[in-house]
Amino acid sequence: MKPFFLKPVCKDYIWGGNRLKEFGKISDKERIAESWELSCHPDGESVIDSGEYKGMTLTQFLKEHPEALGVHCEKFDRFPVLIKLIDARENLSVQVHPDNAYAMKNETDWGKTELWYIIDAEPDAEIIYGFQDTLTKEQFRFAIENHRLLDWVRHVPVKSGDVFFIPAGTVHAIGKGILLAEVQQNSNLTYRIYDYDRGRELHVQKALDVTRLSPAEIVPPEPPVIRDGFTAQYLKRCPFFTVQKITARESCVGYYDSFRHLLILDGEATLETEDGAMPVKKGDSIFIPAGVFCPIHGKCTALKTYVSAVGRHPAGSIRIKEEMIL
To answer: Is 155 helix (H, G, I), strand (E, B) or coil?
Structure first.
């Protein structure tokens, strides 16, 4: 089995811009607010864009070749991950996502935990991340109904390279002037709480049901590991996905019991496949089936996403099996 390129699904939302054209994204819509780079979600499915399966949706390919997912995906009843590029020309709505338990009970869908990697940001750009202080549910409702929510949430300035892990139940919003990559659970459930009077539907009661009312902790990523030819940094390891930032200076290799997805953020390189060199560049989205040995040669920066082995200690805490970077 061989790596292949994916063609993204481009979305036009009222807050979006057109900076994703810098990443080679093409659309006949007015804006490209989001490009869904890795998706088996029915709201927008990635299509294979190279090799013998070109033209097939990723969903259909994985149905026919489940071994490409690897053993660590067996614990999920569907493809676990959705990866996007997001260009926020204007503020996104203040929103929250449910966890799996609430979503399955009330929406017959998955919840949504996500990670943001800030690719670029204007000097005054900020995100909303949780609350400044702990609120009661009555205070939260008061803030929503009296248009005071922006006074009570936590405003966090951002810059290129920042990383934010956003567990389900955390109030959040992407501010204007931010370009980011998002790795999330395979879900499209969003409960809007405040939308800058743009007239879109709000979901106040559901937000009241699922929102964590205490301040959210911003946990920095793990320190980078420098090896000959590359640098690797774990941005987050959680039960739903593992994300690394890879900076290849000469070469970088990997072999996993999970599929891998590479999103090239900058630079140019080649992947060494059984058929020879596979050139990759900024904006490319590549699916690497489980077990495929695929060295990278050249100079590039990429996000690598896969699924780790997860177990539990007797006390119930999550243990994620350590995997070799190389």
So the answer is: strand
Write out the DSSP string of 25-88: ---SSS---EEEEE-EETTEE-EE-SSTTTTSBHHHHHHH-GGGT-GGGTTSSS--EEEEEEEE
pTM metric for this prediction: 0.93
Contact 41, 59 (CB under 8 A): no
- Integer Cα distance of 3 and 15 in angstroms: 34
- H or E stretch at 302: strand 296-306
Dump pLDDT digits (tens) for 72-116. Answer: 998 898 999 999 999 999 999 999 999 999 999 999 999 999 999
Are the C-beta atoms of residues 5 and 52 closer than 8 Å to each other?
no
CA distance 33 to 24: 14
Walk me through the domains of the chain, giving residue ranges and CATH numbers.
7-62+81-210 (2.60.120.10), 225-320 (2.60.120.10)
Question: Catalytic residue positions?
Answer: 192
Q: What's the pLDDT tens digit per position in 41-81?
A: 999 999 999 999 999 999 999 999 999 999 999 889 899 99
Measuring CA to CA, which residue among 298, 245, 234, 244 is closest to residue 269? 298
Number of H helices and number of E strands within the chain?
5, 25
CB 46 within 8 A of CB 6: yes
